[in-house]
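hi! just following up on the protien thing from before. the input was this:
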Amino acid sequence: MVGAGFVPGMNAVIKGAALAAGELGWEVVGIRDGFEGLLHPEHYPEGGLVPLTPHLVETLDPAAGSLLGQSGRIDPFNVRQLNEDEIIEEVDQSDELLARLKEEKIEALISVVGGQGLTICYKLHAKGLNIVCVPRAIENDIASTLVSFGFNSALSFTIEMLDKARQAAQAARKVAVVEVLGVQSGWLALQAGIAAGADAVLIPEIPCDLQTVAAKLKEKMTNRRSYGLVVVAEGAKIVDNSQVPANKVPENTLKASLSPLAAGDNSTYVIQRSGLAAETVANGLQLLIAEETFPLVIGLWARGGAPTAVDRQLGLAYGAGAVQALNAGQDGVMVAFVPPAIKFVPLAEAINKVRTVPADNEFLKTARSLGICLGN
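and the predicted 3d structure came back as:
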């Protein structure tokens, strides 16, 4: 089962699990669109389950889109539906889900999910489901593993786009402010910014003073180098500064009406906050350095494209590792890549945590040694 949110190369994980299970003589099926295929099989003309036969798996392209789909966003503990009064309410269908698994004679579940999905899987395991999770996160923010599936592909694409932004800024003699994914952790912004030779990288872990960034840009920008590149994670925190426009959106009550999936600031950016960080930083810097800036947003584009060689290998290893865990009698665990080994971490140690950039991280030291401003 694959959780919601597109990540390139998901077929690699599916193929790794199916091939490893086939070597043990196990029968494997895939559930379409998260739990949707199991709870609502009537939505699919060919049924909600996909038999992962040896022939199908052998011809499965690891670089193609997910065979099982990645559109379902069903939390079985909080399923939204209309009641008899045509009012939306949330109901707990976890028992129904477990019953459907039993009806289909599914003895164990391999779930490829992000942070919220790990919590759902932990709760299902507590109700008796044999389950092993594979971490996948574009932002690499899942605790207990160094590299989540999908991060390397997003990193490579982001670096490519930052290179293009820097070239455009150099030709136009402007400052490019590029927003990348990273609400709570700055791994993507930091590592991509270093690789692309950014002048400044702003991440959620380090509160940013725009006057410090402006001073660094003034120092670097000369007649011979009249351009700049600033990389900002979408969750970057800008400290209050009277000389910098707040650029805040008027507060409203929209967030309260969007439970339980609402996130972010209580503003009109609750539904789509993409671009807010880039706009805030670009406007602030333009006033402080009197140089023309232009905000760009990579955003969800980083989820597209083909997977890198690293993610293809990692996906196969994660899928096979999940089968190894089940075969060893371990369930209620997450497969974790701790170079050079694949380990199994109890779900309780992986949920309700975010893998952020620590203050003594080597990437931060590298950025500072290269003269990259981190905003403090």
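The two ends are 43 Å apart (CA to CA).
Residues 10-150+307-339 form a domain with the Rossmann fold fold (CATH 3.40.50.450).
cheers
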